[in-house]
Design brief:
The chain is elongated and about 90 Å long. The chain starts with a helix and ends with a strand. Helix content is 36%, strand content 14%. The chain has a four-stranded mixed β-sheet. It contains four helices and four strands. β2 (93-99), α3 (106-127) and β3 (134-140) form a beta-alpha-beta unit. By secondary structure, it is α+β, with helices and mostly antiparallel strands. It has a domain at 61-165: OmpA-like domain (60s Ribosomal Protein L30, Chain: A, 2-Layer Sandwich), CATH 3.30.1330.60.
Length: 166
Amino acid sequence: MKGKLLLVFVVAVAGLVVACGGGAKRVTPTAPPVPEVTPEPVSPVEVPVEPPQAQLALMPIYFDYDRSDVKANQRGPLADNAKAIEADGGIARVIIEGHCDERGTNEYNMALGQRRADSVKNYFVNYGIPKTKLSTVSYGEDRPVDPGHTEEAWARNRRAEFIIQK
């Protein structure tokens, strides 16, 4: 009887296994679901922004051919430049550049450009701008603003220009 009981038990277990799907099920692991995160609104940080300061632009001063004295029609623009320099307390130095047209030797034009720059510097000093804020340099004919070879181009090249250092 033990043999029959054992046989019934084995058949019952086998039937149970078949009824449950034929054995152990293979489970495929899946990643747990990622919770959806909604970012919290961030309030903007208010940083005070100063408007960019306008760069002081001084007008060039033009000279007659082979001359270093300030022309009468250039005294108004030169006075405006002096007022602008005086009004801007943040200026550490003004570099006055003397320029010439291409006519004449390089040595002569370097000296003429220096005389032009010095003439403008003297005007500023007489106006009341401290000498310590002013320096001069001559470029002679080396930096033409107009590369042409006409009277109009030469007239534009005979000038003093200004570099502002804050």
